[in-house]
Each structure stands twice: as C-alpha cells, then as structure tokens.
Specification:
With 264 residues, the chain is an alpha/beta fold. The protein contains 6 helices and 12 strands. It has helices at 12-28, 50-58, 74-83, 130-143, 158-167, 214-223, and strands at 2-7, 34-38, 63-65, 102-107, 110-118, 148-154, 174-178, 188-189, 195-197, 204-205, 236-245, 252-261.
Length: 264
C-alpha cells in the first residue's frame, strides 16, 4: 500500500514553515510515502518562486501544483519550470504559457501521475474546460506508465469539483479540491476506488481571513477599496489528506483528513 499526503494551499512563509515542521517527520515515521503540495500561494501569499519551490522540495514535497495565482510572479518561476518538471500548473491555462499540466514521478518502482486543472465557475481567469483538459492529461500520464493518478482541481464551486470527481470515477486514484482554503468534511472513496474531497484546506495561518491579515480584508469589504493584503502569522496549521492507494490496481482504499497545528 502507498500512502500519499496531499497538502492544501500553502500560504506564504507560515505555510512553508508548517511543511518544514511536519512533512519530513511524517515520511520518516511512515505516515506518508509520497507528498503532493499545492503551492500557488507559497511566495508571499500570491504566486510561487524558484526559491519557495526549492524550499518545499527540500522539506519533503515530491510534486508541487499551482492554481489561478501560479503566474503572479511569472518572471521568478518561468525559467525554473524549464528545469523542474515536478512543478505543474493548471493544464487548462491558455496555450503558450510555460510549464506543464501533469508529471509522472517514480517512487519505489511505482509511477505516480499528478495532474492539475482549474475550474471555470466564479474564477478570475477564463480557463478552458477542466473536464476535457483532465481527459488529455490522464491519457498523457497513463501513456508514461502511471499506475497511480492524483488530480488536483483548483476551483471555487463545490459542484464543479464534485462533478469532476464523478466524471473521473474509476479512472483515477483521487480527485482533490484546492483554492478555497477551507477544509471540507465530505471525504469519501467511491465504489470504483476513487478518493474525493472538495477542499484540502489551508496550510498556513488560521488567525486570518483564509491566510491574510484580518484588518485589511475587513476594510476592503467595508470600503470596496482594493487594499493590499498581508500574510498573517498566528495559529499556523498544515491541512490536507492522506490517501491509501493500492499500488498495483491504482485504486484508493482510504482517505483521511489531516490537520496539524504548529506550536511555538
């Protein structure tokens, strides 16, 4: 059995600290064998940079996924994407942007495919269909020999994430949601062996508004002014799920929510 830890949106330095504190120890104790981490907000709460990605890899992550903020620091990640195939962005971004929407990584003789799509409903960018993009990327990773396939859908709407899970039911090991920074309690494994959860939650400061300092966000709601947000600092936690997957069949056997609190 393969245990895969999938971590929800890492937010700024506090989120990276949570990864540093917990991930390597979870691997050393056997709690997790392989780690997929959503890192689109890892650099200052918006975007990802080469240095932030390298820090997450050093601290035990095996694959990093992105989201709608993936290119917020485009100049600082663009060249790194040419060197590091394990950093992937939504496959349904417009054609011509750097990076790939999937990758295959071998672990203990098992090829693990990870693919990433973004939703269309209520999102700030106009993405192509995540359903059709997922079909293309699944075909791609399976042609590369992937026995286990994990899908990260970065989306606002619960219905869209749930629909993708049912659309891919039996074709992939897991469909996990990111983006909303609030861990949901709807985890399940279908009869066909696909694990699903609507959102993995926030890895970062919970004394916040989904990662950002409360004051400026509340002021923005009151005034409608576009005020600059700041990364919060307190009540830092790691959130996600642990998937137990049969390496031979690629079917999920179990999904467990994880939330670990960083103590000072």
């Amino acid at each position: 059995m393969l245990k895969i830890l999938v971590i929800g949106d890492v937010y700024g330095e506090p989120g990276r600290k949570a990864v540093e504190r917990f991930v390597r120890s979870m691997k050393s104790t056997g709690e997790a064998d392989f780690v997929v981490c959503n890192a689109e907000n890892a650099a200052g709460g918006a975007g990802i940079t080469e240095s932030a990605a390298k820090e997450l890899f050093i601290n035990g992550c095996d694959v990093l996924t992105g989201g709608d903020h993936f290119f917020d620091k485009k100049k600082e990640i663009e060249e790194y994407l040419k060197k590091e195939f394990r950093v992937i962005r939504p496959a349904n971004f417009p054609k011509g942007l750097p990076g790939e929407g999937s990758c295959v990584v071998e672990h203990r003789g098992t090829k693990i495919g990870v693919l990433h799509v973004a939703g269309q409903v209520f999102m700030r960018h106009h993405f192509n269909s995540p359903f059709l993009a997922a079909d293309e990327e699944i075909d791609k990773v399976k042609k590369q020999g992937a026995q286990v396939v994990i899908v990260d859908i970065h989306a606002e709407a619960t219905s869209e994430k749930t629909a993708l899970c049912w659309y891919l039911d039996g074709q992939v090991s897991a469909v996990v949601g990111t983006h909303t920074h609030v861990q949901t309690a709807d985890e399940r494994v279908t009869q066909k062996g696909t694990a699903c959860i609507t959102d993995l939650g926030l890895t970062g400061p919970y004394d916040s508004v989904i990662g950002a300092e409360k004051g400026p966000i509340i002021e923005k709601f009151l005034t409608q002014l576009n005020l600059r947000k700041e990364v919060a600092k307190n009540d830092v936690r790691l959130s996600g799920v642990i998937l137990t997957v049969d390496e031979r069949s690629g079917k999920a056997l179990k999904i467990e929510r994880v939330q670990k609190k960083l103590t000072v």
